[in-house]
Write a structure and sequence with these properties.
By secondary structure, the protein is an alpha+beta fold. The chain has eleven helices and ten strands. The longest helix has 51 residues, at 27-77.
């Protein structure tokens, strides 16, 4: 027995038996293994980053899809209406608690135009959906809420607490940061020298914008009276009609090409490249919500150029219409297109205007808005809701009355 145990111990110590002793890694071998692991990580990280971006783009598309489905649900519940602000002078009310918003109801009922009444409604939604009162959210004068805040009507319809990620692109780090009230007050309000009494609204703004004809008529009245929203001198400027009771009356049946007409878009292309592009830049490519609830990934350069809603009957010449869509300069000068003057605001996440533009036509420069130029594209579709952005040429509006 002792001899057997002795042999086992000798074998375990490498003595006498044929079993060889185990060796550890040498330093060189260990460094080789570490190098291989580092190489694999360096190869995988870009792929992981790419898949994260794809995932965020999918979330963005899904959010737009949700809003598209809710658009049709809203229309089914409210006599085919497209959601938009409904308060007009003398016609403002709420069905739930009025204590937070009675001053706004009074303000809207005594308003001089639709825009003032709509501003009161927007603030009433923000108050009711946050629980904040007049002290935190006073009435805002001379404010057009439709451009970045029409989504509030939909959020009120689906009973959503504010602020909500549904209306913010996952790549919009600026607005996502505003969900923290202290950060918003420190960075945006105090850091930007803004007034908390009027700029609080930015915390509830959306990455996504609705086309203006979703809430305003397709063009002016036959006598030239302004009854539609029109673009101003810069991309963030708009002019609204002073005639009351003309906004917020669009219905789903007004849409002539639901699969080719854009309903909602992001003001910035946040997905297709390392640098963000202004939505009207011909290089931009982003998910777009159409009126048929579909979300399509589209290049801006493939969209029709749009029009000037103040002169709806003016048509581009046959020569201009025969030009490739990329010839934006000729379209802007001769095609009766609204030309967007882009003045980015970095504080709200807008990309700088000096990005190189290799897709610009020869002789138009190489950087910034002058390289575009930026025509109105689907933000200002020729024919409004009756027009088309993708899949067909612009409709003929020469005989419009």
């Amino acid at each position: 027995m002792q001899s057997v145990m002795r042999r086992i111990r000798q074998a375990g110590n490498g003595e006498g038996g044929s079993t060889s002793g185990r060796k550890g890694f040498t330093l060189i071998e260990l460094l080789v293994v570490i190098g291989i692991i580092a190489l694999l990580i360096s190869l995988l990280l870009p792929a992981l980053s790419k898949w994260r971006k794809i995932g965020r783009k999918l979330v963005c598309s899904t959010q737009m899809k949700q809003m598209g489905v809710s658009t049709h649900s809203y229309a089914a519940d409210f006599q085919d209406k497209l959601y938009s602000f409904t308060w007009t002078p003398g016609r403002a009310s709420v069905t739930d608690d009025r204590t937070l918003v009675q001053d706004l109801i009074d303000r809207a009922n005594n308003a001089g135009n639709d825009t003032e009444a709509s501003a009161a409604q927007a603030i009433s939604i923000m108050r009711r959906r946050t629980g904040d009162g007049p002290g935190q959210m006073p009435m805002i004068d001379n404010w057009i809420p439709h451009v970045l805040y029409t989504h509030l009507v939909l959020q009120d319809y689906i009973d959503q607490r504010l602020p909500a990620k549904l209306v913010v692109c996952p790549e919009d780090s600026v607005r996502l940061g505003w969900f923290n009230r202290d950060r918003f007050n420190t960075e945006f309000i105090a850091g930007g020298g803004r007034d908390i009494g009027t700029d609080y609204r930015w915390r509830f703004s959306s990455s996504y914008q609705h086309v203006s004809v979703m809430y305003s008529p397709d063009g002016n009245a036959p006598d030239g009276t302004q009854r539609t929203v029109t673009p101003g001198p810069a991309h963030f400027n708009y002019q609204t009609p002073t005639t009351p009771n003309v906004l917020g009356r669009r219905v789903m049946a007004d849409v002539a090409f639901p699969s080719g007409k854009v309903q909602m878009y992001d003001g910035q292309d946040r997905h297709s490249a390392k640098d963000q592009y202004f939505f009207a830049d011909k290089r931009a490519r982003q998910p777009l919500l159409m009126f048929d609830q579909s979300v399509n990934d589209q290049f801006t350069r493939d969209s029709n150029h749009g029009w000037r809603p103040t002169t709806p009957r003016a048509m581009p010449s046959a020569a201009v219409q025969a030009l490739p869509n990329q010839q934006a300069a000729a379209w802007a000068q001769q095609g009766n297109c609204h030309v967007i003057n882009y003045e980015p605001d970095a504080a709200t996440g807008e990309s700088r205007a000096s990005l190189p533009n290799p897709a610009s036509p020869p002789g138009t420069g190489s950087t910034g808005p002058a390289a575009g130029p930026f025509t109105g594209v689907y933000a200002w579709t020729r024919g409004g809701l009756k027009g088309v952005d993708y899949g067909a040429g612009q409709i003929n509006t020469a005989q419009w009355q």
